[in-house]
Each structure stands twice: as C-alpha cells, then as structure tokens.
Amino acid sequence: IYDLASKCSVLLAKDFVHNAFTVILSEETSNSRSLYVEMNQTGITIHPRLKISKMFSFTEENCQVLDKSLEKNTTNSRRETTKIEVSNQKGVSLSCDFQYDLCTVTLAGWHHGISAGLFGTNDNEAGNEWMLPNGSFTDNVQEFTQSWQVNKCNLVPKKEKPCPITGKQTICKVFFEEPHSLLR
C-alpha cells in the first residue's frame, strides 16, 4: 500500500504484450480522481466519488457514449445502484463498488507476467514488483510512482475522439458533474 502524493495521472496496469487492457488513474481538474479503462476498442471512465461512469467506442463510424451495455460481445458491462463491473472475454475484469470507494482489477492466469504499471508485474515474484518502464528497478516510492506518470500530468486518451454531446448529456453534466451543483 502506498499513498500517491502526486497530482498526476498514472498507469496502474497495462498489457504490454497483447494490449488487452489498460487501467489509468486519472487526475481530474477538480481535485478528484477517476479510472480510465480501455478494453477491446472501448473506453470506460469511472468517477467513484460521483458514482457515475461513461463508456465510449473508438470505432470511426460509431462514436457514441454507451450507457448500460455494449453492442459488441467482446466487452460486457453491468451496472447496479452501487456497483459497476466491466469485463472482456480475454479474462480481464474491473469492478468498482461505490458504497466502499473500492475498485478491483482481476486478471486471468494467462495474463501472468505480461503487464506492468503501479500494480506491478503480475508474475508472483516479489523481487521485481517495482519495475520502472525502462526495465530497471527501484526501491524509492517517489521514483516508482513518478516513472509511471502519463503524459506529464495531463491525460488525454490517445484514441478517444470527441463525440457530439446530446441534450440529455448536457443536462446530466450540469446536474451531476458541475462543481457548483448541489446534486454532485
């Protein structure tokens, strides 16, 4: 367990072999954090404090926010009142319980040793958990966390295209995301 004093977005875990998943802890402008998860050409942004999530597709012809479930059968999403679960057929699942502010990432056995980030190397070897992106190792927490920062403290997911905002989304944003809203 370590405390992230940094106000930067950091890579928690990424499959560097098959690119099956990416999990980033994103720093928002309003001093809150969100999780950005990418699986199967689908991006998921989860705001645990706000108890909301947004899913979007990266396909060129289908740029849209997906609320409840995905049309593709390669990524599954389930949303309950206090919990959201996202998984794919490659054995990756992410679950956030808003009641306890707890999010977990679970990887199937065939992801053994092919991921890296602040969550470590996922190979059951305690000696190499603090690996830096360049393959070297450290025992310094600050060096370790800073090495996994994303885009110099300004995360903009590479593949995300700006989608047209609908009237419903604008109203929801005003009610639930704006800093001055009582419903936030």
Automatic annotation (TrEMBL):
PROSITE patterns: VWFD. Residues 1-164 form the VWFD domain. It comes from the Eukaryota. InterPro entries: VWF_type-D. Pfam families: VWD (PF00094). This is APLP protein.
